Amino acid sequence: MITWRRLGEPDFPLLGQWLAQPHVARWWYQEHSAEAVRRDFGPAAAGLDHSEDHLAFLDGRPFGLVQRCRLADEPVYLAELSALTDVPPGAMTIDYLIGDARLVGQGLGPRMIGSILRKTWTDHPEATCVLVPVVAANRASWRALEKAGLTRIAQGDLEPENPIDDRLHYVYRIDRPARP
């Protein structure tokens, strides 16, 4: 069973180690020094930013990170994404990583995504759907989304995080499940 906890400052050294791993650095193109991690993740950890960073735990051990936010809180990103697909009010997005390379390819990605989706529907009753753009070249990421139940609904050019990537992105969506 996957459990969750908000990322806190004591977790920054572990996160920095994960961000430095080649399998993470390739797609998360982010500085991983202690100063950079504090700068980039500190505001959310302190509750001063609209995004949410959650550590994923398996059997009590942290193995991954999910960032989650409302698209309405990111107007520039919302405008860019709206050029590719309809973005309904209440739409959210996630980004995710598995920190330990030894755990990659074992089915944890889809499980982690499915778990954060269930948590999203509970934590954010106003969330209508989750939209996730993925660089088309990141096959492992978009396959994890598909295995977690998301559907590819669009594709097109978005600014990649890593300048070596092509602009082509796939956009995945899952709607809030109907209430019984």
TrEMBL record:
Pfam family, one: Acetyltransf_8
Protein name: Lysine N-acyltransferase MbtK
Organism the protein comes from: Actinomadura fulvescens
Role this protein plays: Acyltransferase required for the direct transfer of medium- to long-chain fatty acyl moieties from a carrier protein (MbtL) on to the epsilon-amino group of lysine residue in the mycobactin core.
Pathway: Siderophore biosynthesis; mycobactin biosynthesis
Ranges where the Acyltransferase MbtK/IucB-like conserved domain occurs: 5-52
InterPro entries: Acyl_CoA_acyltransferase, Acyltransferase_MbtK/IucB-like
Residue stretches spanning the membrane: none
